[in-house]
Specification:
Arc Repressor Mutant, subunit A, 8-stranded mixed beta sheet, 4 domains, two-stranded antiparallel ribbon, 10 strands, elongated
C-alpha cells in the first residue's frame, strides 16, 4: 500500500480510535505509551503516540480489510483496471456494470482513497489504485494456487485441466494431448474454444489452465512453448486448381481475383494480419480488418465456399476434415507459409497437472497404428 493511501486510511480511522469507552484500545495504548491516566506531555512522547496510533490504525484497517477485500471485489477491480473501462470489464466477467461499480465503491470507501479516475475516454488507476492493482493480481494468483493445491487432495481422480483451443490444431498437437490423456487417466481435460483475447482473459482469471494459440503472447505474465508447425497450402476447387497449378504447386499471385476464406481476426489477430499482409503483397484482396469479409470459423462453410470456384482457403495438408472430390489441396509453389501453435499458460502457475501436460510435448509423438 502506498504511503499516501496508508496516511489517508490512518487519518480516517484514528478519530474512531480516540472515542472513549474502548477498553481494548486503552489496553493497547497502555502497552505502547504507558498508563492512560498518566500521560507524558513531552514532545517526544507525543510523537511516539502519533506513530503508535498510526500503526494501530494500520492494524485495524488490515483487520477490517479481511471482510472487505473479497476475491470477487479484487477480480472486479483488476478487470476494470486492465480493460480501462467498466463496460468492457462487465463483458469480461459476465456481470452487470452496476455490480462492478459497487465493488469498486466499497473498496474506495474502505480505504478512504480514490482508486480509479473516470473520464469520457475510459478509466485509469490512481497511484493508490496502481498499488492495489499489483497487490490484487498477486493475491488472486495466490488464491488460485491455494485452491488447486488443496483440491488435489480432495479426490485422487478429480484433477481437471481446462484447455483453450483454436478452431484448428496440428495433428502432432492433437496426438500429444491424446497421449497425455491416455497416460494420465486420473486427469480430465476439458477443451474450450475461445478467441485469443478471451483465452488470455480466461488464463488471467483462472478460468483456463493452458491454451493453444497460433501466436505467442508478448506479455511476461505468460509462459509459452512452441508445440506445432505446419506448412499451409491452398484449398480450392479442382477445376480452378487445374488451371493455375504449376509443377511445384500453386503460385500465390495466380489466386488474384478469388476471395480469401479465412478465420475471424479476433481468433488470432497477429497471425491474421501476417497472412493478410502476405496475400496483399501478391495482389490478393484480403479485405479490411473490420469489414467482416469472407471469414468463417466453420470448416464445412470453408469447403462449401471453396467448391464454388470463387474462393480459396489456406490450410494444412493433413486436414482432419473430409473434403468432397470437387475440392483439392495443393502446396504453395513459391512462398512457404508456416502456421505455428504455442502452448500458453500463466507464468505464476504451479499446477503439477499443467506441468505434466507441457512435458508431454517434449516426448516423441505416438501416432495411432
Amino acid at each position: 500500500m502506498s504511503t499516501t493511501a496508508a496516511d489517508t486510511i490512518a487519518d480516517t480511522v484514528i478519530p474512531e480510535m480516540r472515542s472513549p469507552g474502548t477498553d481494548a484500545l486503552k489496553s493497547v495504548r497502555a502497552s505502547r505509551h504507558g498508563p492512560v491516566g498518566n500521560p507524558d506531555s513531552s514532545p517526544g512522547t507525543r510523537e511516539s503516540r502519533k506513530v503508535g496510533a498510526r500503526a494501530l490504525a494500520m492494524e485495524l484497517a488490515v483487520a477490517r480489510g479481511r471482510a472487505c477485500f473479497t476475491s470477487a471485489r479484487l477480480e472486479a477491480f483488476v478487470a476494470i483496471a486492465e480493460e480501462a473501462g467498466i463496460s468492457a470489464a462487465a463483458r469480461r466477467l459476465h456481470t452487470s456494470q452496476p455490480a462492478l461499480s459497487q465493488s469498486v465503491n466499497v473498496l474506495e470507501r474502505h480505504l478512504g482513497v480514490e482508486l480509479l479516475v473516470r473520464s469520457g475516454r475510459g478509466v485509469r488507476t490512481t497511484p493508490a489504485g496502481q498499488v492495489l492493482l499489483e497487490e490484487a493480481r498477486a493475491t488472486l494468483a495466490r488464491h488460485d494456487q491455494l485452491i488447486r493445491a488443496v483440491v488435489e487432495y480432495s479426490d485422487p481422480g478429480g484433477a481437471v485441466i481446462r484447455l483453450g483451443i483454436p478452431s484448428d490444431l496440428a495433428p502432432d498437437v492433437l496426438c500429444a494431448v491424446s497421449n497425455f490423456i491416455e497416460d494420465h487417466p486420473e486427469t480430465r481435460v476439458e477443451p474450450v474454444n475461445l478467441p485469443m483475447a478471451e483465452q488470455l482473459a480466461a488464463l488471467r482469471g483462472g478460468r483456463l489452465d493452458v491454451s493453444f494459440m497460433h501466436e505467442r503472447p508478448s506479455k511476461a505474465e505468460f509462459d509459452a512453448m512452441l508445440v506445432g508447425r505446419e506448412n499451409l497450402g491452398v484449398l480450392l476447387a479442382d477445376n480452378i486448381a487445374r488451371l493455375v497449378a504449376g509443377p511445384d504447386g500453386i503460385p500465390l499471385e495466380s489466386l488474384a481475383g478469388l476471395n480469401w476464406v479465412g478465420f475471424p481476426r479476433p481468433n488470432s489477430p497477429a497471425w491474421y494480419d501476417e497472412l493478410a499482409a502476405m496475400l496483399r503483397t501478391h495482389g490478393i484482396d484480403a479485405g479490411g480488418v473490420d469489414s467482416g469479409g469472407d471469414h468463417y470459423p466453420n470448416p464445412s462453410v470453408i469447403v462449401t465456399a471453396a467448391s464454388s470456384g470463387h474462393a480459396f482457403a489456406l490450410a494444412p495438408a493433413l486436414s482432419a476434415y473430409p473434403v468432397p472430390p470437387q475440392v483439392v489441396w495443393k502446396p504453395l509453389a513459391d512462398h512457404p507459409v508456416v502456421q505455428r501453435t504455442w502452448a500458453v499458460w500463466p507464468a505464476r502457475s504451479r499446477c503439477r497437472h499443467v506441468a505434466q501436460l507441457i512435458a508431454a510435448f517434449e516426448q516423441p509423438p505416438r501416432f495411432p497404428k
